[in-house]
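> call design_seq(struct)
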């Protein structure tokens, strides 16, 4: 499939380029010119961003039951929509060709407004359709917690620059990240996507991240815009539950740390972020109305826009307006606190709150109805439409929306990017305990459980054994425990690892039996702060992982690379301490097993 060329507009049939398509014109004139030509339906279409998927061969999904709620052609040509979030993946060539087909379809509409394509994170190990995708063809790096464990601003900038280059090659121009919430509630399922619990660390990392995505100081044709989330800070979740679900809708601040969670957003605004997403949750016991943040005028207009001075795009989190099936199961709209309102009334409340765009929705007809009925002034619509158009112009989409599939094949997962990601995985590993067992130096009989023993086969000094009783040393790789929600029958819901952070009694006995039988190196994937005092006391060594392949782990254990990570949160000592803690307060334990910032190393 060849790269297409965008046809010029001649709406006045006078042989001249329209001002909005003339790159020599100032952006504000182009915005005003285009906005003045748009119909009410076209303006309304701008205000919706929904999910699209692609067929494996790069063709458009035209099923009526597609995740976006309608066939792709209907969304673009029929509903005047031109903002989409790509869910899933494919080969780099197929992704690029699919993107070009989207842009061709958009170019055939009356005004030819190009598509802005967005993506959740897709450069690490997490595979949860609601939050992030496994890297697939893209280079694979540590999770954000791993980047935070290093705290290296140059690495953050390089990571985001790699994301930018790989995204650009397949047409992704908006990153639905970074997630700059603070993981102050240890049980929260989404802490894995954050930079940890510390506001100062997160604030220090967000600027270089945004700079890397932009490719410089400001948005331009070679930039990927960022939508930071989730204002005013997810993390203080009651009982650690997540507001994707009705039982997790409440955000609470018993410690009075509401302003602490704003610090990373202040840093992001100072660093020039252009888009912000409020979270689903509703604040309880604060000065603000007890409705979801996307509906909350005091939070969006009063706090974000008026107090913090943010002038960019505010896009709601996904599916606030309509009930919809997810992965075959019915789910209600996340209209927390306004469940009694109709979809039409919810749309009006979101716009009155000060948001510009509806994530995960495809119902522009509701905005049209509000304007035609006199309940919404079209001038209010113009304010949001102008913000959304302005970003398209700044990204250069009107000049060159298409991508080169050959370049996509060369760029996505390029050897240099994979090498950078693999090195970061190794550096981010965090050594918490070491009695001298690490690194492996002398000839050793090794028992391996929970990871591939193939990662150690190239080590001449090691002899692998399947019998722990015959081993000198064991390696046991574990995941942080979680507690499946009783009665959860949806894979979507089960993808959120929530609940207890300690191992069930029987599993803990099995682990400790191995640790007592043979000196054991425990490698623990810390997607949340695990409660492991017995393991920490009885292991020979303990290595925290924040997104690392087996080869990366083996290289550190063998001393080929030194671990450099430092914990981006505390590891609490007991579940009682967790359940009685205050969800909004960071580093609250007075006697953690390991404190924030703890980390050892050794000479490779």
């Amino acid at each position: 499939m060849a790269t297409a060329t965008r046809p010029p507009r001649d709406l006045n049939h006078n042989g001249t380029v329209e001002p909005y398509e003339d790159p020599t014109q100032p952006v504000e004139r182009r915005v005003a010119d285009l906005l003045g030509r748009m119909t009410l339906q076209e303006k309304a279409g701008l205000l919706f961003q929904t999910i699209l998927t692609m067929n494996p061969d790069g063709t458009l999904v035209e099923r009526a039951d597609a995740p976006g709620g309608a066939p792709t052609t209907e969304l673009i040509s029929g509903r005047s929509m031109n903002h989409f979030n790509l869910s899933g993946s494919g080969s780099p060539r197929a992704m690029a060709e699919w993107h070009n087909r989207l842009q061709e379809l958009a170019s055939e509409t009356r005004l030819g407004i190009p598509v802005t394509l967005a993506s959740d994170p897709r450069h690490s190990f997490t595979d949860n359709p609601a939050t992030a995708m496994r890297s697939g063809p893209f280079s694979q790096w540590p999770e954000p917690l791993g980047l935070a464990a290093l705290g290296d601003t140059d690495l953050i900038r390089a990571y985001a620059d790699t994301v930018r280059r790989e995204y650009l090659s397949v047409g992704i121009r908006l990153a639905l990240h970074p997630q700059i919430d603070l993981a102050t509630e240890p049980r929260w399922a989404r802490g894995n996507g954050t930079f940890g619990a510390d506001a100062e660390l997160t604030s220090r990392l967000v600027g270089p991240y945004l700079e890397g995505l932009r490719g410089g100081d400001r948005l331009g044709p070679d930039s990927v815009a960022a939508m930071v989330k989730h204002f005013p800070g997810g993390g203080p979740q009651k009982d650690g539950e997540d507001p994707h679900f009705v039982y997790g809708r409440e955000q609470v601040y018993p410690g009075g740390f509401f302003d602490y969670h704003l610090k990373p957003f202040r840093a992001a605004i100072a660093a020039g972020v252009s888009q912000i997403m409020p979270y689903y949750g509703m604040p309880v016991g604060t000065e603000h109305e007890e409705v979801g943040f996307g509906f909350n005028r005091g939070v969006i207009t009063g706090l974000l826009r008026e107090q913090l001075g943010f002038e960019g795009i505010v896009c709601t989190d996904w599916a606030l307006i309509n009930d919809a099936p997810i992965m075959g199961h019915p789910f209600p709209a996340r209209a927390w606190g306004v469940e009694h309102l109709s979809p039409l009334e919810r749309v009006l409340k979101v716009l009155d709150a000060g948001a510009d765009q509806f994530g995960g929705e495809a119902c522009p007809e509701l905005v049209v109805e509000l304007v035609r009925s006199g309940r919404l002034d079209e001038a209010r619509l113009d304010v949001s439409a102008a913000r959304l158009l302005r970003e398209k112009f700044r990204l250069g989409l009107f000049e060159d929306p298409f991508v080169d599939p050959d370049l996509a094949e060369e760029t996505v997962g390029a050897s240099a990017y994979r090498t950078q990601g693999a090195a970061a995985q190794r550096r981010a590993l965090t050594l918490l305990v070491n009695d001298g067992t690490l690194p492996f130096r002398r000839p050793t009989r090794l028992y391996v459980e929970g990871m591939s023993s193939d990662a150690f086969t190239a080590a001449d000094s090691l002899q692998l054994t399947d019998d722990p009783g015959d081993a000198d040393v064991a390696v046991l790789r574990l995941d942080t425990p979680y507690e499946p929600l009783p009665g959860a029958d949806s894979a979507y819901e089960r993808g959120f690892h929530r609940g207890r952070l300690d191992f069930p009694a029987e599993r803990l006995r099995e682990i400790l039996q191995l640790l007592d039988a043979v000196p054991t190196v425990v490698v623990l994937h810390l997607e949340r702060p695990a409660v492991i005092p017995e393991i920490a006391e009885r292991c020979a060594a303990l290595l925290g992982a924040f997104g690392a392949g087996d080869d990366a782990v083996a290289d550190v254990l063998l001393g080929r690379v030194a671990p450099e990570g430092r914990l981006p949160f505390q590891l609490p000592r007991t579940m009682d301490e967790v359940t009685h803690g205050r969800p909004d307060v960071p580093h609250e334990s007075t006697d953690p097993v390991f404190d924030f910032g703890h980390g050892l190393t050794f000479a490779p």
